[in-house]
Amino acid sequence: MYKNRLRPALAYYEDLIKNKELPSVVAQEEMERLLVQIGFFQHERLIHLIVTVLFGLATVITIPAYLVTDQVALLILGGLFLCLLFPYIIHYFHLENGVQQLYLYYNQLEMTANPGFKKIY
Q1: Residues ≥6 apart with Cβ < 8 Å to 21
Q2: Which of 14, 49, 54, 59 is most enclosed, with most CB atoms within 10 A?
């Protein structure tokens, strides 16, 4: 997801923002397109947050369950959950930072599309 969709979108909007002579009409159209993309990435971010939290909970639950029941299978399951948790955390980190960057690009496009827009952040 990050490599296939978000990274190219970030590169595209970064190049677009660097264009200092971007007409306000084009900036307005790009703002609308960017809002749609942000919506897609927000949905993806929510799903990955839910999955990451569930894997974290599953990892935390299996360790005390192993200590109580002394079943080696629970320890192996906890280890597998832990091995999957780290890539999910890394992916969610990149996804979150990418969406935050898209927010900044949206604000910059808004300032280009509306010259009278005051920067409030």
Answers
A1: none
A2: 59
